[in-house]
Sequence to fold (179 residues):
Amino acid sequence: MPAAQIPDTLRAQFTKSHIALSLATAQDDMPLCLVNEGFTTLCGYDQDQVQGRNCRFLQTPQTPAEQVTAIRDFLHDGDAHDGRFPVLNRTRDGRDFMNLVFLSKLRRASGETVFVLASQFDLNRARRNGRQAEHDASLARNVNDVRRAAEQLGLIMADSAELIARSITTLARITIRDE
Ligand SMILES: Cc1cc2nc3c(=O)[nH]c(=O)nc-3n(C[C@H](O)[C@H](O)[C@H](O)COP(=O)(O)O)c2cc1C
Fold:
């Protein structure tokens, strides 16, 4: 879907958010159709460089296959609506980081997924500055705002508050190599 067809309400949520957000259309190879400044700042790519591409371009040859499989399985599982996935990624300037990607499907009442919302989060940086809890509170607020905006468009999103709250335990289990 060209950028021009993204509903204004979703675009407004993306613009005002301070965390990394991205949206892909659920068709074809799930190309990115909207990213915000938090995303371009985190990854180092401009909007023009990412629009229309599948977000796997952030992965590296060293990214463990099982990390990618977990995301692929989630996206293809009709019963799974939201999830959080650690995946080794690389910024445009070549810095590797453990990205904790939040994903949530925006569905029609029929069950058909129209968009997938994502929020990227640099676990290495968060561990260094101790701001994981603060980030998660912000993620929960932002996801809820997008959920309300989506509702007005007739699209359904899972309530991810519990998943995000549980993630502190998930985070504790993920071993990462600090820079
Ligand atoms: C909206 C959206 C955002 C995504 N963000 C990331 C990301 O930041 N990093 C990443 O490694 N994969 C990300 N993915 C996952 C990949 O795009 C892809 O789905 C994954 O690599 C599994 O599919 P594949 O086996 O076809 O590559 C995202 C997917 C979607 C739909």
Notes: The mean pLDDT is 91.
